[in-house]
Amino acid sequence: MNMSSNQKIKLRWYRYVSSFFAGIFLANSIPHYIQGVSGHSFPTPFGNPPGIGDSSATTNVLWGAFNLLVGYLLYKVSKTNNSQYLALVILYLGIIAQGILLSLAFSHKI
Questions:
Q1: What gap in Å lies between CA 45 and CA 24, rounded to an integer?
Q2: Which residues have a Cβ under 8 Å from the Cβ of 55 and sit 6 or more positions away?
Q3: Residue 89 covered by a domain
Q4: Structural domain tally of the chain?
Q5: I need a surface site. Which of 42, 70, 90, 109 has the fewest CB within 10 A?
Q6: Is residue 52 classed as helix, strand or coil in its secondary structure?
Q7: pTM (2 decimals)?
């Protein structure tokens, strides 16, 4: 779909929310998938206690892949593209926010 600059799609507020949460899920997929394919256990919501206890490498690969899928679907729903700079900034803010939260939550893991 080609659009001139005055035919750009206007995004509604919920598309920005979707973009933000896409960033959160995409960022969350990275540590789980990397730890899993590296063969390391790592906390997931399925650990005991949830979010604190480690899960197997296979569980982390699956959890990372699930987060990647959800992030991708939310990104598609947000209809963000290169011409919607605010939506891209909000996507990036979701990635940064989740990165900061993950760094704080897992700072004890070395």
A1: 16
A2: 41, 42, 43, 44, 46, 47, 63
A3: yes
A4: 1
A5: 109
A6: coil
A7: 0.84
